[in-house]
Recover the amino acids of this structure.
């Protein structure tokens, strides 16, 4: 049995460009077109001080890493920190299904640092990162009463 593939060069260039731009892509073929869209990334969070995975406490600084999380780099100089930087918002839905806007300390295409909302209830939480109206990443957090870590440098 012999298989033959025919691909339009324009679609190949579009798919390769999307792969390098988004890191993960979803290709969907219809009758006359090829649709390319970014896949939502699954992310993990680490304690910003220890850089270790694990439970976090309300009010602690956590970091996450990925691809194309933001379109540009921006840090917060506000006190309290802003809940939107460079068009990025992070929503934390706690164990009681209450959604909180997370204060953002730093956003870049490959990293985001947030404060775990002080109002978040203890237990399992879901996090959604939005760049504009698009969801770019999702992940889980375990929120506990205390999770000490120190910045050493």
């Amino acid at each position: 049995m012999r298989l033959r593939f025919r691909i339009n060069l324009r679609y190949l260039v579009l798919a390769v460009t999307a792969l390098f731009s988004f890191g993960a892509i979803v290709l969907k073929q219809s009758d006359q077109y090829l649709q390319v869209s970014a896949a939502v990334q699954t992310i993990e969070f680490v304690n910003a001080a220890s850089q270790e995975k694990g439970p976090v406490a309300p009010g602690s600084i956590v970091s996450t890493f990925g691809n194309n999380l933001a379109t540009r780099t921006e840090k917060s100089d506000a006190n309290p920190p802003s809940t939107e930087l460079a068009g990025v918002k992070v929503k934390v839905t706690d164990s009681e299904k209450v959604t909180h806007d997370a204060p953002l300390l730093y956003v870049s295409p490959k990293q985001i640092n947030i404060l775990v909302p002080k109002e978040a209830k203890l237990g399992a939480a879901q996090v959604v990162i939005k760049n504009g109206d698009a969801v770019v990443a999702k992940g889980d957090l375990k929120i506990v009463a205390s999770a000490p870590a120190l910045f050493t440098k």
Q: What stands out?
A: The longest helix spans residues 9-22. The two ends are 63 Å apart (CA to CA). DSSP finds one helix and twelve strands in the chain. Confidence is low (pLDDT under 50) at residues 25-31.
